[in-house]
């Protein structure tokens, strides 16, 4: 039979409550009887001590104490018919006087003042039997010893037995109440505990069915709350990845189908004799083939970086020389577009360890992006500077800029370039994704900054000098 988690929790609460109640009840029942007997012994000892002190103070000795004590009321006050210091009256002694819990009374010479441990009044009680005795003092002087029953070999009277019975009944009622409260608390706590788990279960089932937009309310800050937060993050990441996958499929289909349609169209026309193969048409076909080759190459590069299969050869590199090469390569292109490109790099920068070829690929991609989005009369500034224990390389332009809503996504591999800054592969937007992958593979970071549309963009690469050579 399948049991729910709520049933298991309630059952566990009930078991714990029962065990606790049974143990506590047993301990209280055992200790209550012991405590009651201790109380009887203490009361009897106190009563006898009071009688001895009263008699000794009045008579100066304990001679004939038994005659006085037999007239001593159980309540602890001497009988009015026999006061200390008065001659004994001829009356029947009160033999019913309760001395339960006491073995007897001896004087300082161990003579029995009351029947003690089988010894009659006046007989000497052996010293080895006078143990755990309680001293009776008058004016700081010990005048007698009381022998309490430390083994509790006496019986409780009817009133004391009734008290124990009532105590046992109270313990039983308390145990029953404790069990009922435990069951009630079990229902309450288990419902509170199970509710978020059921929400997570339902959301997980929906997630497995393909509904990736699942967000569960976080109702606590404990482990369940952390689990719910993690689930929400995972669900959001899955949804984002699914959206990227769908965009990837659409973009790849578009970027592959367009050049393929152009190439296949020319081939069909050539086969039908509609056109002839001219150098211009061959150049168009070669351009489309090159576009396909670059697209496949970019995808392959990204896959290799993610799989850790891309070979990165780190070596000491002088940044000023590297940036100058990029500057000289793109200066003529920028001049033809009416864009001014500037080099702003100090010559005394420390050497850093990077892959020179891969870094050239990154910088060329960033400069090409800047040229693509910088209008005539604009400016591109290529620079590097030392910041504490880091070196920052920047490509800054005065071009179209990037909207604030697009900035967090410009390095996503499938973020469409018609919404933001794209790369060298058309609408696929793989250029910046490749830049990020290559920079990360070399131990650096890359970030984008822009004040908004038509406010220009700055791409910043950061490398630690600690990794320098």
From TrEMBL:
<dbReference type="Pfam" id="PF00512">
    <property type="entry name" value="HisKA"/>
</dbReference>
<dbReference type="InterPro" id="IPR004358">
    <property type="entry name" value="Sig_transdc_His_kin-like_C"/>
</dbReference>
<feature type="domain" description="Histidine kinase">
    <location>
        <begin position="251"/>
        <end position="467"/>
    </location>
</feature>
<dbReference type="InterPro" id="IPR003660">
    <property type="entry name" value="HAMP_dom"/>
</dbReference>
<dbReference type="InterPro" id="IPR003661">
    <property type="entry name" value="HisK_dim/P_dom"/>
</dbReference>
<dbReference type="Pfam" id="PF02518">
    <property type="entry name" value="HATPase_c"/>
</dbReference>
<dbReference type="InterPro" id="IPR003594">
    <property type="entry name" value="HATPase_dom"/>
</dbReference>
<protein>
    <recommendedName>
        <fullName>histidine kinase</fullName>
        <ecNumber>2.7.13.3</ecNumber>
    </recommendedName>
</protein>
<dbReference type="Pfam" id="PF00672">
    <property type="entry name" value="HAMP"/>
</dbReference>
<feature type="region of interest" description="Disordered">
    <location>
        <begin position="76"/>
        <end position="97"/>
    </location>
</feature>
<dbReference type="GO" id="GO:0005886">
    <property type="term" value="C:plasma membrane"/>
</dbReference>
<feature type="domain" description="HAMP">
    <location>
        <begin position="191"/>
        <end position="243"/>
    </location>
</feature>
<keyword id="KW-1133">Transmembrane helix</keyword>
<dbReference type="GO" id="GO:0000155">
    <property type="term" value="F:phosphorelay sensor kinase activity"/>
</dbReference>
<dbReference type="InterPro" id="IPR036097">
    <property type="entry name" value="HisK_dim/P_sf"/>
</dbReference>
<dbReference type="InterPro" id="IPR005467">
    <property type="entry name" value="His_kinase_dom"/>
</dbReference>
<keyword id="KW-0597">Phosphoprotein</keyword>
<keyword id="KW-0472">Membrane</keyword>
<keyword id="KW-0812">Transmembrane</keyword>
<keyword id="KW-0902">Two-component regulatory system</keyword>
<feature type="compositionally biased region" description="Low complexity">
    <location>
        <begin position="77"/>
        <end position="96"/>
    </location>
</feature>
<dbReference type="InterPro" id="IPR036890">
    <property type="entry name" value="HATPase_C_sf"/>
</dbReference>
<feature type="transmembrane region" description="Helical">
    <location>
        <begin position="9"/>
        <end position="28"/>
    </location>
</feature>
<keyword id="KW-0808">Transferase</keyword>
<dbReference type="InterPro" id="IPR050428">
    <property type="entry name" value="TCS_sensor_his_kinase"/>
</dbReference>
<feature type="transmembrane region" description="Helical">
    <location>
        <begin position="169"/>
        <end position="189"/>
    </location>
</feature>
<keyword id="KW-0418">Kinase</keyword>
């Amino acid at each position: 039979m399948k049991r729910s988690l709520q049933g298991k929790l309630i059952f566990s609460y009930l078991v714990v409550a029962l065990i606790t109640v049974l143990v506590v009840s047993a301990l209280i029942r055992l200790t209550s009887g012991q405590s009651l007997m201790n109380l009887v012994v203490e009361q009897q000892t106190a009563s006898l001590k009071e009688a001895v002190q009263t008699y000794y103070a009045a008579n100066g000795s304990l001679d004939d104490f038994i005659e006085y004590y037999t007239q001593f009321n159980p309540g602890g006050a001497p009988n009015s018919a026999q006061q200390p210091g008065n001659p004994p009256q001829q009356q029947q002694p009160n033999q019913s006087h309760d001395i339960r819990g006491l073995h007897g009374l001896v004087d300082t010479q161990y003579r029995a003042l009351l029947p003690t441990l089988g010894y009659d009044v006046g007989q000497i009680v052996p010293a080895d039997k006078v143990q755990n005795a309680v001293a009776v003092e008058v004016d700081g002087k010990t005048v007698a010893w009381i022998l309490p029953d430390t083994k509790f070999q006496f019986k409780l009277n009817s009133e004391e037995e009734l008290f124990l019975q009532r105590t046992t009944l109270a313990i039983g009622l308390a145990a029953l109440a404790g069990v009922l409260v435990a069951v009630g608390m079990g229902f309450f706590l288990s419902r509170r505990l199970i509710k978020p788990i059921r929400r997570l279960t339902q959301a997980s089932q929906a997630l497995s069915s393909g509904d990736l937009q699942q967000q569960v309310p976080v109702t606590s800050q404990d482990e369940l709350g952390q689990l719910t937060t993690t689930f929400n993050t995972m669900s959001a990441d899955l949804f984002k990845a699914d959206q990227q996958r769908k965009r990837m499929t659409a973009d790849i289909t578009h970027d592959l189908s367009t050049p393929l349609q152009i190439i296949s169209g020319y081939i069909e026309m050539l086969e039908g004799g509609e056109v002839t193969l001219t150098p211009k048409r061959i150049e168009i076909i070669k351009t489309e083939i090159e576009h396909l080759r670059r697209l496949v190459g970019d995808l392959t590069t990204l896959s290799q970086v993610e799989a850790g299969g891309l070979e990165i050869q780190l070596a000491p590199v002088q940044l000023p020389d590297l940036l100058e090469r990029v500057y000289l390569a793109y200066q003529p292109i920028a001049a033809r577009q009416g864009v001014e490109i500037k080099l702003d790099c100090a010559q005394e920068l420390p050497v850093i360890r990077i892959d020179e070829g891969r870094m050239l690929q990154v910088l060329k991609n960033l400069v090409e992006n800047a040229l693509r989005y910088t209008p005539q009369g604009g400016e591109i500034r290529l620079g590097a500077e030392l910041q504490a224990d880091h070196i920052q390389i920047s490509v800054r332009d005065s071009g179209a800029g990037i909207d604030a809503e697009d900035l967090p996504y410009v390095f996503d591999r499938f973020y469409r370039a018609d919404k933001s800054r794209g790369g060298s592969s058309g609408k696929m937007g793989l250029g910046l994704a490749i830049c990020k992958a290559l920079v990360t593979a070399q131990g650096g970071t890359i970030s984008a900054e822009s004040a908004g549309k038509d406010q220009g963009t700055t791409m910043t690469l950061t490398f630690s000098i600690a990794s320098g050579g």
